[in-house]
């Protein structure tokens, strides 16, 4: 990098909207008793392991082989996670639409193993990333996917760089670029691989990445594979980001400095204050990699993501990355930006050269959904998602629970703090016909377990009221009214 950027005046952050969401802190009472309960559970688990042989495979500790788990992870998985394992990875046998069919199961050995009961439960779905409601078993999107399967087959059995490209890929890339308002785009068959295999083709030794502390594991893996130097800034803390950027520029040893962050954070429900980030990028001559996996389709008046939501020109973002798994009811991902950027990724990106191409039915599904978003009916879905999100968050706050994130974020985390509360809440809501996702360590900090509700345009107001009534009953039964803002 050249130029005396570090000598420029400090940013005046009062000019920008830097609010990224509400993160109410829990009381000291919750912290103390949460730690106490966890350590007691770990202690009794340690005693149990000494007295009884666990019903699991054990490490052979062969020379030259790294262990799969360390001792703490083994103890946690066997004696903490196993107690609530029945609330995770629950099998479903339907499309993840407004309602979902959950296959019921039971255990007769304390959650070591499970067996199906042979019965199914129809539940209102608050757990799937179906923001715009396109994950439907019937309709234009499903018809387009079926037609593509008949014409092109279910898979192309090759990478894009060899024999895995078809007319649908080219059309989808052109449509994605127009939808986002940039020059070009390239699509991939897997959203996770878009980051993990895309970043190594863009960054390398001599590059410094300034990474948000809550970035997704796909971004973290991609940065490691790229062998770029990484410095972490506090979540959405633009002052800290500016400090790290100025210090790095003053070192005068980096070929490029790239800010790596997300639009909507899937565990926190927060939204990046993008206007401020872009202003900092321009002032200091940095570059910006923006992961819009949870924001494209879900934010903005035209569903074009956090750039649309924050009023930022998408051409001011060097690399726009997103996935088709959340708002478009499909699979895969994309990178968009300048034509020069996309040519470089085609030549140097690992996913384009080695990974399996996006299946034709998925490409057709995304195309149909993206075209629908350019119609009045499609934009009605966007407004309904926003209204559902505001309504659901407001009603939760009135209950006295702690919710994280921005009011516009369709990801709504409700804090329950202890893993035992996750289990008790999920069990009771499932019995009331509500399918929810519980999240705990290691996806969250150890004592910040939560339920993560995902809003959808497919939900009607009656379904949301049914869910809220059930949540109210469970909250009062378990005493989850932790908020001090009531």
TrEMBL record:
What sequence ranges are listed for the domain Aminotransferase class I/classII large? 122-471
What InterPro entries does the annotation carry?
Answer: Aminotrans_II_pyridoxalP_BS, Aminotransferase_I/II_large, AON_synthase_class-II, PyrdxlP-dep_Trfase, PyrdxlP-dep_Trfase_major, PyrdxlP-dep_Trfase_small
Provide a GO biological process annotation: ceramide biosynthetic process
Enzyme Commission numbers on file: 2.3.1.50
List cofactor names only. Answer: pyridoxal 5'-phosphate
Q: Which Pfam families match?
A: Aminotran_1_2
Q: Which residues cross the membrane?
A: 28-52
Q: Which family does it belong to?
A: Belongs to the class-II pyridoxal-phosphate-dependent aminotransferase family.
Q: Report the protein name in the record.
A: serine C-palmitoyltransferase
Task: Identify the species of origin.
Answer: Parnassius mnemosyne (clouded apollo)
Taxonomically, what lineage is the organism? Eukaryota, Metazoa, Ecdysozoa, Arthropoda, Hexapoda
């Amino acid at each position: 990098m050249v130029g005396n950027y570090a000598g420029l005046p400090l940013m005046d952050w009062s000019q920008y909207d830097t609010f990224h969401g509400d993160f109410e802190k829990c009381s000291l009472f919750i912290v103390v008793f949460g730690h106490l309960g966890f350590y007691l559970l770990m202690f009794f688990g340690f005693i149990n392991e000494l007295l009884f042989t666990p019903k699991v495979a054990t490490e052979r500790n062969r020379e030259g082989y790294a262990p799969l788990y360390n001792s703490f992870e083994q103890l946690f998985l066997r004696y903490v996670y196993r107690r609530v394992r029945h609330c995770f990875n629950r099998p479903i046998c339907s499309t993840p639409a407004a309602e979902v069919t959950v296959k019921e199961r039971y255990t007769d050995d304390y959650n070591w193993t499970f067996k199906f009961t042979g019965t199914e439960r129809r539940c209102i779905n608050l757990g799937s990333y179906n923001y715009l409601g396109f994950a439907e078993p019937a309709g234009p999107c499903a018809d387009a996917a079926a037609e593509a399967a008949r014409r092109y087959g279910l898979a192309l059995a090759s990478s894009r760089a060899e024999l895995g490209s078809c007319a649908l890929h080219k059309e989808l890339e052109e449509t994605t670029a127009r939808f986002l308002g940039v020059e070009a785009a390239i699509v991939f068959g897997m959203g996770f691989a878009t980051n993990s295999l895309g970043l190594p083709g863009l960054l390398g030794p001599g590059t410094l990445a300034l990474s948000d502390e809550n970035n997704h594991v796909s971004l973290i893996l991609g940065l490691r594979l790229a062998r770029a130097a990484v410095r972490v800034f506090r979540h959405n803390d633009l002052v800290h980001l500016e400090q790290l950027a100025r210090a790095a520029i003053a070192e005068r040893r980096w070929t490029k400095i790239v800010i790596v962050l997300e639009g909507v954070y899937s565990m926190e429900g927060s939204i990046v204050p993008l206007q401020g980030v872009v202003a900092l990028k321009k002032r200091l001559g940095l570059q910006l990699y923006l992961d819009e996996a949870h924001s494209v389709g879900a934010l903005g008046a035209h569903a074009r993501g956090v750039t649309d939501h924050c009023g930022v020109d998408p051409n001011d973002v060097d690399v726009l990355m997103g996935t088709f798994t959340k708002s478009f009811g499909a699979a895969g991902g994309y990178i968009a930006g300048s034509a020069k950027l996309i040519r470089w990724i085609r030549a140097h990106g690992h996913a384009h050269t080695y990974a399996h191409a996006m299946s034709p039915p998925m490409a057709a599904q995304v195309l149909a959904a993206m075209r629908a978003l350019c119609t009045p009916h499609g934009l009605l879905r966007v407004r309904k998602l926003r209204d559902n999100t505001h309504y659901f968050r407001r009603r939760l706050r009135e209950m006295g629970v702690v919710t994280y994130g921005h009011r516009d974020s369709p990801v709504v985390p409700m804090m329950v703090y202890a893993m035992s509360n996750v289990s008790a809440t999920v069990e009771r809501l499932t019995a009331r016909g509500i399918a929810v996702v519980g999240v705990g360590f290691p996806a969250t900090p150890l004592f910040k377990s939560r339920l993560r509700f995902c809003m959808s345009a497919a939900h009607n107001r009656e379904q949301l009221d049914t869910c809220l009534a059930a949540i109210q009953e469970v909250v009062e039964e378990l005493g989850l009214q932790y908020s001090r803002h009531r």
